[in-house]
Hints:
This protein is α+β, with helices and mostly antiparallel strands and 70 residues long. The chain contains two helices and six strands; from the N terminus they run E-E-E-H-E-E-H-E. The strands form two sheets. A four-stranded antiparallel beta sheet has the order 1-2-3-6. A hairpin with a 5-residue loop joins strand 2 (10-14) and strand 3 (20-23). The chain is flat. The mean pLDDT is 89.
Amino acid sequence: xxxxxxxxxxxxxxxxxGTAYLNAEDVAKGWGFVDNxxxxxxxxxxxxxxxxxEFGFSTLVSKDDFLPEN
Length: 70
């Protein structure tokens, strides 16, 4: 795996072909797909995956996954 970089609180990396990948959890938080229950922030993974599915992204994602930026 490539070196993970953090830019503006978003973790990501660039693979050997030049494609940038962003951490799914960081992106979900940026989109606001979270629930702040009991003073803790939880990502709404069902909502994230449904949103991505609308754009033709068929793979389910979770906390430690990375999404292609394109």
